[in-house]
């Protein structure tokens, strides 16, 4: 899911996203609540109309942003008190308030409020955090009345397998339309990430979507799919685009490197996106070095096209029963390519 934090996938218009095959966009409840405000968005017809996007929208609960951005947060059993990272104003968000905000936004998939714990934490902290997240999940479920919105619960428990299992079973008992694996990509070693994903996916129902929050590198997506995950979001493709890092079938390419000054080739000769069909590496490097705004649009367009095409290829491999073979070829393409494979 391309990330449109503030109701906009940075540098791209909705028509760009449609052209590259985006089917759903993620927006951020925390940010939209603070600015411009959920009541204003509701008054103006809801988030779909506000941002001119006709496809599905997912809004997260803001739990991660409260953890990562908010100042002086205080976690209570009733909710979270925090100061805005924008102007320092004080706010109190409860599970019921989070549901109300997302109802005003009118998104299609909404998330429960959760506490996203840091890494590392001790067992007692993780257990208490898990109990709080489960309590909030039940409150969110009871407050959720809009039948046009699907509600997802978020599995926490840090990196303690027994807590992850307990969290998943508790959410299943409450009953949700889908299940997210939260608390990932918070600084943990990669083996801890996969352990948590595997433990959760052994328990979560196979007939409901499973969503790994914040996982975004191509190889990580492939590894997570291999372990049973269905949905992903991450700022990686667009954020990397704005720093000149482009994703290709052979690895990453840093377009700002001097070696591309006279390079007439496209970013990736195996890619058939609009950018690769019409622009050379030399031109894209010129735009980026010159700080032309078009650089961000073209780079973002290509990176998101690469990601969405990768997901399409993974789905096709699953349908054909050839995912293991696809995974092998994926890694082989990234080996032994000389300068092509270098950043």
Protein described:
46% of the residues lie in helices and 15% in strands. The mean pLDDT is 95. The strands form three sheets. A seven-stranded parallel sheet has the order 1-2-6-7-8-9-10. Strands 3-4-5 form a three-stranded antiparallel sheet. It is an alpha/beta fold. The chain has two domains: 14-234, TIM Barrel (Alpha-Beta Barrel), CATH 3.20.20; 240-334, no CATH class. Helix 6 packs across helix 7 (123-143), helix 13 (281-289) crosses helix 14 (293-320) and helix 14 (293-320) packs antiparallel against helix 15 (323-332). The chain is built from 15 helices and twelve strands.
Shape: globular
Q: How many structural domains?
A: 2
% residues in beta strands: 5-15%
Structural class: alpha/beta
Beta strands, count: 12
Q: In angstroms, what separates the terminal alpha carbons?
A: 25 Å
CATH architecture of the largest domain: Alpha-Beta Barrel
Any key phrases for this structure?
343 residues; alpha/beta; TIM Barrel; seven-stranded parallel beta sheet; 15 helices; 12 strands
What is the compact description of this entry?
With 343 residues, this protein is of the alpha/beta class. 46% of the residues lie in helices and 15% in strands.
Secondary structure blueprint with pairings:
Blueprint: H1 14-19, E1 25-28, H2 29-34, H3 38-43, H4 47-51, E2 57-60, H5 63-68, E3 71-76, E4 79-83, E5 90-93, H6 95-105, E6 109-111, H7 123-143, E7 150-155, H8 161-174, E8 178-181, H9 190-203, E9 210-213, H10 218-226, E10 231-233, H11 236-242, E11 245-248, E12 251-254, H12 274-278, H13 281-289, H14 293-320, H15 323-332
Parallel strand pairs: 1-2, 2-6, 6-7, 7-8, 8-9, 9-10
Antiparallel strand pairs: 3-4, 4-5, 11-12
């Amino acid at each position: 899911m391309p990330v449109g934090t503030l109701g906009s996938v940075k540098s791209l218009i909705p028509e760009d996203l449609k052209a590259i095959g985006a089917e759903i966009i993620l927006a951020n409840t925390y940010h939209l609540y603070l600015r411009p405000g959920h009541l204003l968005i509701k008054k103006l017809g809801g988030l779909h109309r506000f941002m001119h996007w006709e496809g599905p929208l997912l809004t997260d609960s803001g739990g991660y942003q409260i953890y990562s951005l908010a100042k002086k947060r205080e976690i209570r059993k009733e909710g979270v008190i925090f100061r805005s990272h924008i102007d320092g104003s004080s706010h109190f968000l409860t599970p019921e308030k989070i549901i109300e905000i997302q109802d005003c936004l009118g998104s299609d998939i909404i998330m429960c409020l959760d506490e996203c714990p840091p890494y590392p934490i001790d067992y007692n902290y993780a257990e208490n955090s898990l109990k709080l997240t489960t309590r909030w999940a039940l409150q969110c479920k009871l407050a959720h009345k809009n039948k046009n919105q699907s509600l997802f619960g978020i599995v926490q428990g840090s990196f303690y397998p027994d807590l992850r299992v307990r969290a998943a079973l508790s959410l299943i008992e409450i009953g949700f339309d889908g299940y997210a694996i939260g608390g990932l990509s918070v600084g943990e070693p990669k083996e801890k990430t996969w352990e948590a994903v595997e433990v959760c996916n052994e328990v979560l129902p196979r007939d409901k979507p499973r969503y790994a929050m914040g996982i975004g590198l191509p190889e990580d997506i492939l590894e997570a799919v291999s372990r049973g995950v269905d949905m992903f979001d991450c700022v990686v493709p667009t954020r990397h685009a704005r720093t000149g890092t482009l994703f290709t079938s052979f690895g990453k390419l840093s377009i700002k490197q001097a070696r591309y000054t006279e390079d007439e080739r496209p970013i990736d000769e195996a890619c058939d996106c609009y950018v690769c069909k019409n622009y050379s590496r030399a031109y894209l490097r010129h735009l980026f070095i010159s700080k032309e705004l078009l650089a961000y649009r073209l780079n973002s367009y290509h990176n998101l096209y690469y990601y969405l095409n990768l997901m399409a290829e993974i789905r096709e491999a699953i349908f054909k029963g050839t995912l293991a073979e696809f995974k092998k070829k994926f890694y082989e393409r990234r080996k032994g390519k000389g300068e092509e494979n270098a950043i």
